[in-house]
Specification:
The chain is mainly β. It is 7% helix and 40% strand. The strands form two sheets. Strands 1-2-5-4-3-6 form a six-stranded antiparallel β-barrel.
Length: 199
């Protein structure tokens, strides 16, 4: 799983400075590190401020990466970017494997549920939408799909889909096969396997 900003992808998080030359320690958001060797330029961002910088060097440690960027030449300068995100264009991000998706591509997908009899595979229709994916977060034992429930969903009761103030609830569903079925990012759809997980 990798995070993204539309076609700009968050590939790493700065985890402090390393050494005396202004190197960063970088944690990869995908858990993979090989693709960092192909980066010649990255954007550092804290969500509000961004800084484009040329990559001077990259070296891999044990479950950590060391990255040196042009213009950042001391531990003090590097420390200013602690917890900032490292963003690159889609083509420089970790290449997806089977059953992997970028988080940004999952955001905005409709979550749907449809009960069918026997072995018939359920099919998506507009009336089966229970909510919309707003984010995918890392939890203690894997990823959680953050879903904003639809107040117009006819087969969810109000106490399931609405807060006490009457606004749509946000729920979190483990991103595991037993809870999330078919994922179709091209058509912006994700299948929910059980309604009870929303309660």
């Amino acid at each position: 799983m990798a995070a993204a900003l539309k076609d700009k992808f968050v590939v790493g998080i700065v985890r402090g400075s390393h050494g005396i030359t202004g190197e960063f320690k970088v944690e990869s958001t995908s858990g993979e590190y090989e693709h960092f060797a192909d980066m010649d330029e990255v954007t550092l961002t804290n969500g509000t401020v961004s800084r484009l910088a040329k990559v001077e060097s990259v070296s891999e440690g044990s479950n950590i990466l060391y990255m040196k960027l042009e213009g950042i030449n001391s531990p003090e300068e590097a420390a200013k970017f602690n917890r900032w995100e490292i963003v690159v264009p889609r083509e420089k991000a970790h290449k997806l494997q089977k059953d992997e998706w970028y988080i940004e591509d999952l955001k905005g997908c409709s979550i749907w549920y449809k009960e069918t009899a026997g072995d018939t595979a359920p099919a998506f229709d507009e009336n089966s939408i229970v909510g919309t994916v707003t984010n995918v977060l890392e939890g203690g034992s894997g990823y959680l799909v953050e879903i904003l429930l639809s107040e117009s969903c006819s087969f969810l009761s109000d106490d399931v889909k609405l807060t006490k103030k009457g606004s749509p609830k946000t729920v979190y569903v483990p991103f595991k096969d037993e809870f999330i079925g078919k994922v179709d990012v091209d058509n912006r759809q994700m299948q929910l396997m059980h309604l009870w997980i929303l309660e």
